[in-house]
Amino acid sequence: MSQASEAARMKCSTYLDNWDSFFYHMSKYDNSGELEELETATRAYKAVDVMLSGILQTLGLGSVERGEPFGYPQVQQSSTVSTRQVREKEIIREKEVIVKVKCPYCQRLYNEVLEECPRCGAKR
What we know:
Oligomer: single chain
Distance between the termini: 107 Å
Helix content: 40-55%
Mean pLDDT: 76
Strand order of the largest sheet: 1-2
């Protein structure tokens, strides 16, 4: 194998590794919504573009028109809230207040909802 084709093979291997990295981190970003994953995927995507230019130059095809340049995924740095949905859990707790009254006869405390004292049977 010639030196140029060996260099091209190595660059192609790195090129494919960068694509693999791009798809891996995009998948993680889709699942987690973490901006760091999108940034890592963007770096891999840019590396693909650089490697493709290197491969074309190594093969002597660097002067061939490539058409439109790659469109890089954009990371919005100005947003303070990540793109994934924020979930809030609302907990409402009702507190039941039990009021006790004192029986005028036996002086025992009992629940106000009762009509008579549970100890002596006296009515309020």
